[in-house]
């Protein structure tokens, strides 16, 4: 049995499958990045939508986002071995060598950046490049240092809609793009904290500080989460206030925000794995709903 296992590992190292490389790009997160970018592009498009430019923006973002996710796994490959939720990834399981992962991730990042610069516009490339640098050089190492990583990591996580808007307009000064940034930034904190609460033992094994130090009863975490959810309500309404989106969006955003805040309140009142799980699931519904309301308002408005 041992010999067979060694042969299997040897074969996987010699010829990793396409599925292994796809898994390295964290396709779920990458798809969320693409959706956020596309929303920014569509909302930033004045008049008719330039679908050819959108296609190039999607392709370039797919490359650089996938490369960034893969490089994150390369950096954290030894730590991923220590956690149950990440131990089956291609690098911990040695289905891909670190050298191949480094070459693959770097190639995707450079290709995606260049593609956005030359096929979309330099501003879109710049936003994506900054996103990658912040994610890999700031957020990733900070995860083992301080809970502040959750705040810092929410910055690159909130930049994709800014990149999409920049792809459509070539600017980073439109207020609408920064409202989208604020929505995604504030959404991420309860999303990440709820996951950290559920997976705290796993994170602790790897030395990740995803919750405030000495917050044993979760009081600090839950107050911070609820504060973000309260601020999220007026921030999301700004798209309506500034005339960027209409009443369909406003009704949906307020309803979704109250739904999200309700589970934040329940987590504040009773800090258990059950309430953390419900908060996490509510976060998974919130952002797609916001995007749907933006699209409904945009297209029905025609």
* CATH superfamily (homologous) name of the largest domain: UbiA prenyltransferase
- Shape descriptor reads flat
Major sheet, described briefly?
none
* Helix-residue proportion: over 70%
Number of strands: 0
Question: Could you tell me the strand content as a percent range?
Answer: under 5%
Assign the CATH architecture of the largest domain: Orthogonal Bundle
Number of helices: 14
CATH third-level topology of the largest domain: Tetracycline Repressor, domain 2
Name the helix and strand elements from N-terminus to C-terminus, one letter apiece.
HHHHHHHHHHHHHH
How big is the Rg? Answer: 20 Å
What's the CATH first level of the largest domain? Answer: Mainly Alpha
Which class of secondary structure composition applies to the elements? Answer: mainly alpha
- Write down the oligomeric state: single chain
Number of domains: 2
| Poorly predicted segments | 1-14
Average the pLDDT over all residues and give the rounded result.
Answer: 93
Terminus-to-terminus distance: 65 Å
